[in-house]
Amino acid sequence: MALKPDDTVCFCFKVSLQKIETFCKVQKPKYASEISDCLSAGTGCGWCVPMLKKLHGQFCEPYTPPWRVGQDQAPVVRERPPTEVNQETWASGRQEYLAEKKNNPPPKSAPEGDQKSS
Ligand code: FES
Q1: Pocket of ligand 1 (CB under 6 A)
Q2: 108 CA from centroid of ligand 1 (Å)
Q3: How many domains does the chain have?
Q4: Is residue 104 part of a domain?
């Protein structure tokens, strides 16, 4: 089963698949990161960022920056549509992501004076 238009893609900001698709078709963002302009999607926990990148590839035209026009480029590879995951699986994946993230905080740098001298 696939994500349906009303299913949530970004849980942090409650952004649906339909909102993202409409944003992409109307605003035509060049880069996936610009989808964050759609109700801040992807700027919370980060879980949905890979999905937003895939949706950008699915809904938006590929963009070639002016400095790369005419250069040999690798062919654009479209990934499998991410909407093949259903809402329940997508939501439970986020819960696992958050649990893993909480249990694995970023490493802290050692405070000054904590280093051993030889
Ligand atoms: S689910 Fe989109 S930023 Fe958290």
Answers
A1: 10-12, 42-48, 94
A2: 24
A3: 1
A4: no
Residue among 52, 25, 46, 29 nearest 102 (CA) = 46
**φ/ψ of residue 10, rounded to 5:** -105, 110
How many whole angstroms from its chain centre is CA 72? 27
Ligand 1 atom, smallest distance to 41 CA: 2
Q: Per the domain annotation, does 86 fall within a domain?
A: yes
Task: Report yes or no on 17 lying in a domain.
Answer: yes
Take atom 4 of ligand 1 and give the residue whose Cα is closest. Answer: 45
The answer to whether residue 103 is domain-embedded is: no
Choosing from 8, 13, 87, 98 the residue with most ligand 1 atoms within 8 A of its CB, the one to mutate for a pocket test is 13
pLDDT tens per residue across span 48-78: 999 999 999 899 988 777 877 777 766 555 5
| Containing structural domain, residue 35 | 8-64+81-96
> Which atom of ligand 1 lies nearest, measured to the CA of 43?
3
Single-letter amino acid, residue 59: F
**Total Cβ atoms within 10 A of residue 25:** 10
Q: How confident is the model at residue 82 (pLDDT cuts 50, 70, 90)?
A: low
